[in-house]
């Protein structure tokens, strides 16, 4: 089902969707295509008469422009033309612009009114990074030490405003960096730990604004032949640009990057998944579920889900993606079905299943999501899990088995089991991990930290797997943590592998950056996984180690070398998700109960679903017992 199907035909499109569609169409082509410049901007913008004039902020919803082909569907065209007639100027004072659009057209949408402080009032309220005005939900009384105070000050300093409202945090803010590249943008994935730090402190406004503004940027129509993103894609990042108008007037616009400007032109598959995960977290932590119930937000969730669930040429329930489609956004040999994307996909589907309002029109998508969840966890548990015994089994595999009853279904050649793996895998059956990727004749045995941590957090792995992954991290502490938590992947690609797989990338040399570098931002996800598995002491050990160095080292993006001893060669300093990840870890450890709203337990209902496996006797055997049996392994 595509977005057009779930919207119904054009005459049925409710007016509250029309305005939204209007601002979402092809925003990314705005600045780059000069042919379009004579037309008004296609993205949300606000005109300011004077900078900082609080009450004079104006958002103009503007006319859309023609695309570079005429391939837009008639439904989209209709949406656009109706949007035109509805377009109107509205003030963005009080940041209710987005609310106004949807609440004006009603349909049981309960607007969330978040109290805003005027610019300078807010400044007065924030003393040493400690906002006294908010209810800190049980965090009162926790004495912040110097380190945390500095972290809070830096995090607040990284906040980006749009029409005087906070909408996100920049990726890095090093005052000495004169070439910030795109690190001065708000990245969707990078904002997640910032969002959690703010939410856990009782400050939800920035998160709500972020969720609604990025929703406006979501890609709405697909024009592959114009290199524009697929319908439903969320941008990797966005920047607030100030454009001069006549005289002393200017307007602010949100300029998204869907990967068209990114190094390597990589599509951010993970952005939409993170957006959904954050939306759920917002509801769970604030208790405000009205945001996720809004029609525009529901449509956004469904568009992301539809993009991920669309039929392609694939035979597996895993999501087929290109290299660099996630946190690792450069060529690192992770194209295909990388674990990180699968774990985030699973988490996003579980979140969507909880959040999509059940009604006649959503029944099908909810069913599709449930089926995919069952199939996905079955597939990953069956085929991605390795421990010593499984590796021994692969080591003795027969190959070239053409039949339904092949044991070695993916035709993995035992030679792939390289010596490092045979040496590295722990002896104990209670340790193991999910491999990085699975393709025909290829298992990527590297340990990818984010994917393994999110498998624990989302219960993509069985309870036994989840404990075993933490056992492995504990046993391999020197390799995976070393001097700075945590390695992005292990081991690094070296020599000819580095040449061929990374394309001789000088940033991804062995044990640097994405190629075995150590990323402190992974700390918060490690903390969450440890708390879930009742092993907080492991997380405490990692946080204690990190806090000895982060401040002195000026909060680096990543560390280099086999044991993470050196600040990364090209590492940015004052990297926001390093700072926010640290703060989130601290908050979670101080209040472990709140962590339960951010992870998922095993869903027994999903294990009741029918799972189909290839068997000796026939093409497929579908059984309810298949999925259920895995909980015991
Ligand atoms: C790098 C990282 C990516 C991150 C971005 C901004 O490109 O690989 O994961 O989102 O920097 O910090």
Automatic annotation (TrEMBL):
The keyword Hydrolase applies. GO terms for biological process: sucrose catabolic process. GO terms for cellular component: mitochondrion. GO terms for molecular function: endo-alpha-N-acetylgalactosaminidase activity; sucrose alpha-glucosidase activity. Pfam families: Glyco_hydro_100. Its EC number is 3.2.1.26. The keyword Hydrolase applies. Invertase that cleaves sucrose into glucose and fructose. This is Alkaline/neutral invertase. It comes from Arabidopsis lyrata subsp. lyrata. The lineage of its organism: Eukaryota, Viridiplantae, Streptophyta, Embryophyta, Tracheophyta.
């Amino acid at each position: 089902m595509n977005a057009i199907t779930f919207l119904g035909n054009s005459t049925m499109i409710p007016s509250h969707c029309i305005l939204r569609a209007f601002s979402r169409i092809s925003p990314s082509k705005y600045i780059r295509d000069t042919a379009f410049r004579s037309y008004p901007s296609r993205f949300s913008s606000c005109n300011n008469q004077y900078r900082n004039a609080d009450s004079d902020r104006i958002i103009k919803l503007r006319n859309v422009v023609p695309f570079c082909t005429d391939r837009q569907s008639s439904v989209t065209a209709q949406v656009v033309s109706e949007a035109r007639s509805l377009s109107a100027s509205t003030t963005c004072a009080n940041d209710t612009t987005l609310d106004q659009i949807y609440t004006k057209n009603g349909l049981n949408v309960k607007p969330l009114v978040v109290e805003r402080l005027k610019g300078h009032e807010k400044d007065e309220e924030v003393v040493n990074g400690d906002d006294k005005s908010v209810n800190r939900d049980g965090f009162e009384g926790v004495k912040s030490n110097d380190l945390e105070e500095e972290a809070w000050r830096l995090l607040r300093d990284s906040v980006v405003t749009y029409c005087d409202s906070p909408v996100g945090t920049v990726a890095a803010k090093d005052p000495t960096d004169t070439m910030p590249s795109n690190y001065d943008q708000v990245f969707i994935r990078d904002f997640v730990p910032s969002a959690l730090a703010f939410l856990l402190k009782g400050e939800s406004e920035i998160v709500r604004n972020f969720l609604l503004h990025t929703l406006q940027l979501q890609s709405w129509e697909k024009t592959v032949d114009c290199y524009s993103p697929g319908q439903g894609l969320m941008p990797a990042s966005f920047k607030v640009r100030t454009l001069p108008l006549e005289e002393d007037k200017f307007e602010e616009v949100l300029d998204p990057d869907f990967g068209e400007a990114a190094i390597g032109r990589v599509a951010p598959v993970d952005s939409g998944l993170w957006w959904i995960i954050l939306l759920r977290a917002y509801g769970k932590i604030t208790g405000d579920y009205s945001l996720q119930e809004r029609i525009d937000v529901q449509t956004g969730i469904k568009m992301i889900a539809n993009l991920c669930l669309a039929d392609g040429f694939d035979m597996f329930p895993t999501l087929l993606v290109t290299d660099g489609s996630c946190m690792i956004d450069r060529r690192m040999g992770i194209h295909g079905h990388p674990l990180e994307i699968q774990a985030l996909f699973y988490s996003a589907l579980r979140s969507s299943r909880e959040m999509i309002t059940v009604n006649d029109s959503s029944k099908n998508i909810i069913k599709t999501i449930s089926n995919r969840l069952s199939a996905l966890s079955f597939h990953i548990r069956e085929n991605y899990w390795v421990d010593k015994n499984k590796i021994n089994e692969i080591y003795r595999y027969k190959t070239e088995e053409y039949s339904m009853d092949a044991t070695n279904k993916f035709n993995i050649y035992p030679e792939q089991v390289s010596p490092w793996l045979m040496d590295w895998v722990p002896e104990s059956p209670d340790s193991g991990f999910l491999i990085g990727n699975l393709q025909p004749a290829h298992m990527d045995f590297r340990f990818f930290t984010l994917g393994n941590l999110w498998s624990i957090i989302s219960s993509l792995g069985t309870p036994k797997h989840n404990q075993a992954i933490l056992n492995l991290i504990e046993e391999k502490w020197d390799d995976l943590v070393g001097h700075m938590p945590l390695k992005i992947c292990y081991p690094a690609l070296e020599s000819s592998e580095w040449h061929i797989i990374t394309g001789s990338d000088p940033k991804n040399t062995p044990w640097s950056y994405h190629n075995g570098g150590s990323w402190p931002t992974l700390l918060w996800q490690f903390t969450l996984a440890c708390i879930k598995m009742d092993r907080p002491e492991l997380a405490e050990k990692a946080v204690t180690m990190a806090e000895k160095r982060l401040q002195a080292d000026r909060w680096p993006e990543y560390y280099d070398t086999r044991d993470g001893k050196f600040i990364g060669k090209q590492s940015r300093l004052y990297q926001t998700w390093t700072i926010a990840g640290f703060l989130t870890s601290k908050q979670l450890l101080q209040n472990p109960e709140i962590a339960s709203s951010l992870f998922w337990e095993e869903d027994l209902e999903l294990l009741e679903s029918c799972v189909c496996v290839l068997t000796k006797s026939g093409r497929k055997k579908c059984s309810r017992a298949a999925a259920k049996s895995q909980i015991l392994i």
